[in-house]
Structures are given as C-alpha cells and as structure tokens.
Design goal:
Structural class: alpha+beta
CATH superfamily of the largest domain: Fructose-1,6-Bisphosphatase, subunit A, domain 1
Bound molecules: 2,5-anhydro-1,6-di-O-phosphono-D-mannitol, magnesium ion
Largest sheet: 8 strands, mixed
Radius of gyration: 20 Å
CATH class of the largest domain: Alpha Beta
CATH architecture of the largest domain: 2-Layer Sandwich
Distance between the termini: 71 Å
Length: about 350
C-alpha cells in the first residue's frame, strides 16, 4: 500500500501555532486566514489575466457586462474588503492608496491589528506572464480605540507581529512568519487549499546568486559597484563567479534566493538615493522573513527593521539575503564610500 504523508493545511497550521500562546484568542489566526482567502481570489484573477484580451480589455465591459478592473486595483480592493470584513484589523496602509484606510464600526469592537500591504507587487510583469506577488505586514495597533491611525502604521519593523508574501508563480505559495521561523504553503488549485510544503525555511549554507538590476550600474554607490565586481571574480573556493539572476519582481527574486541561496540588492542611485522599494510595504516584511530564515537585511548602514518610518510611502535602499553575503556588501559600502 502506498503510504501518504499527512497533509497539513495552512488553517490547521496556524491554529496549532495559536495554541502555543495560552492567551491568544484567535485574532491573528483569523487575520491570516482572511489574507489567504483574498489571495486565492486574486490568484484566480491573475490566472485568467491572459484571457482579458479575448473576454474584453481592461476598462471596458467584459462578456458578463461587468467592467474589467486592472489587476492591481482589483487586488487592492480584494484585500481591503477581506480585512475590513474580517474584523480583526482596524486600519490598512496600501501601496495603492495615498493615506491610511481607517475602519470604523458602530456595532462591533474594532480589531487590534493594522496591516501594511503591497497588494500586487511587480504588476508591470503581468502581461509577460512573469511571477508577481502580494506582500503583507501585520502590527499590533498602538492607539486604543476607534479606527486605526497613521501612527499605528509608522512602527519600525522590529515591532512586526507577522509578515509574509504570496507568490503567484508556476505554483502559488504563501510564505509567512510570526517570529517563530518561516513556513511556506503551496496552493492546491484543485481544492483551493494552501498545504504546508516548505516547513522551517532557511537560507541554504552555500549560496552563489546575486540579484540586482545591473542596468543601473553606472548610478550605483562605489561600494555596490565593487561588490558586483567581487561577485564576478573567479574563485573556485567561494563558488565565484556567482550566477546573476534578476526577474524584476521582488517576491519572486527573494523567494528564489531564499530557496537556492542568494542576495537581493536594490541600492540607492545618484538619482534616487533611497532606491525604489518602499520601507513599509516591501523592505520591512521581506527583512523580517529574511532574518527569520537565518539571513539579514540592511539599507547599507542600518538594520532595515530598526529604521523608524516617517512617512507611509518612504523608500529605502535594500540588501537582503544570507547573513554572510549581506555582511560582505556592508563591508564594501563602508570601505568604498562615495565622495560627497
Ligand atoms: P512596484 O511596486 O511598482 O511593482 O515596483 C516594485 C518592483 C519590485 O517587485 C522589484 O524588485 C522592482 O520593482 C524592480 O524594479 P526595477 O524594474 O527598477 O529593477
Ligand atoms: Mg511594490
């Protein structure tokens, strides 16, 4: 008889984790479930994206007479709706919205969490059928009553209660941490259930990938230029030259590097000293996962999770990967500072 391994679903897993906290009332469990449910609906729409041209173009009516929405707008509305309806969250900051969306309720007590979300990161890749993702961060609110505020969301990453991402790739995965390791769940599309497929994810000990948009090389800080040259040098013992891999979709690039071993770099440039990625929606959650997987994330000078956010959409240079690789970039940045 063929022995099958017992499948652990995402819901089973988070409930089991909740039981490790004697005073937990299940709010985080419900919140993560709300995110997973919205992710499944977004996943369905992404999978159908290639049919949009046949069924009706974006902005026009489709065959059912419904107006087609751009996928990033759809994803944003889906996550906001799920979190609002779920009741465990009192405010959301989304990369798609300028201001905090604060929830109010006349009849129910508002949830004790706030969520920062990039509903569809890398969405410019959709038309090329390239992997994209959702990135989320969960904090406990600081305010005591009413709807959540901007201050609730401007907390440094060290105060994260949970963070994760969903990758819509060759298969769809949800990867998350609540500060006790990183676990990955693959969606079984036939039944619509996330199943534990990657328990206790850690960066592998050996790593030889570097991921950076080298088209910007000329504008990079000296230290990064030197580090890239270091990656390209020949040295058998340290597996150099490293392999260069860059998708241009943060979740996909980071996820590959987590599985195969590699560093992700999005440096500041002469034109944009803070780089491109957003501290709240992209850097902090990925940094939390990187650290929980035995790695490290920095802006080149400071641990990402210790940066105090001042505005919702602020950007930060970002380097994340195995600890020893990030240490090396930091060393180059220190040794080869830019002349001011
Ligand atoms: P977005 O939030 O507008 O989708 O941009 C973020 C994306 C990241 O997923 C990715 O790492 C980066 O932009 C790629 O930028 P670039 O095209 O400059 O290399
Ligand atoms: Mg983004």
């Amino acid at each position: 008889m063929v022995q099958r391994k017992k499948i652990t679903t995402l819901t089973e897993f988070i409930i089991k984790r909740q039981s490790e906290y004697p005073h937990a009332k299940g709010a985080m469990t419900r919140l993560l479930n709300d995110i997973a449910t919205a992710a499944k609906i977004v996943n369905r729409e992404i999978n159908a994206a290639g049919l949009v041209d046949i069924l009706g173009t974006v902005g026009k009516e489709n065959v059912q007479g419904e107006t087609q929405k751009k996928l990033d707008v759809f994803a944003n509305e889906m996550f906001i709706g799920a979190l609002k309806g779920g009741g465990e969250c009192c405010a959301i900051a989304s990369e798609e919205n300028e201001k905090v969306i604060s929830f109010s309720s006349d009849f129910a007590e508002l949830g004790k969490y706030v969520v920062a979300i990039d509903p569809l990161d890398g969405s410019s890749n959709i038309e090329a059928n390239v992997s994209i993702g959702t990135i989320f961060s969960i904090y406990r609110r600081l305010s005591e009553t009413g709807g959540g505020t901007q201050e609730d969301l401007l907390q440094p990453g060290i105060h994260l209660a949970a963070a994760g991402y969903v990758i819509y790739g060759s298969s769809t995965m949800l990867v998350y941490t609540t500060g006790k390791g990183v676990n990955g769940f693959t969606l079984d599309p036939s039944v619509g259930i996330f199943c534990l497929s990657h328990p206790d994810m850690m960066f592998p000990e050996t790593a030889n990938i570097y991921s950076v948009n080298e088209g910007n090389y000329i504008h990079f800080p000296q230290g990064v230029k030197k580090y890239i040259k270091f990656c390209q040098e020949h040295d058998r013992e340290t597996l150099r030259p490293y392999t260069s891999r860059y998708i241009g979709s943060l979740v996909a690039d980071f996820h590959r590097n987590l599985i195969k071993g590699g560093i992700f770099l999005y440096p500041g440039t002469t034109k944009n000293p803070n780089g491109k990625l957003r501290l709240l929606y992209e850097c902090n959650p990925i940094a939390y996962i990187a650290e929980q997987a035995g790695g490290k994330a920095t802006n080149g000078e400071q641990r990402i999770l210790e940066v105090l956010p001042r505005t919702l959409h602020q950007r930060a240079p970002f380097y994340a990967g195995p600890r020893w690789m990030v240490d090396k970039v930091e060393w180059y940045l220190r040794e080869f500072p830019d002349k001011t």
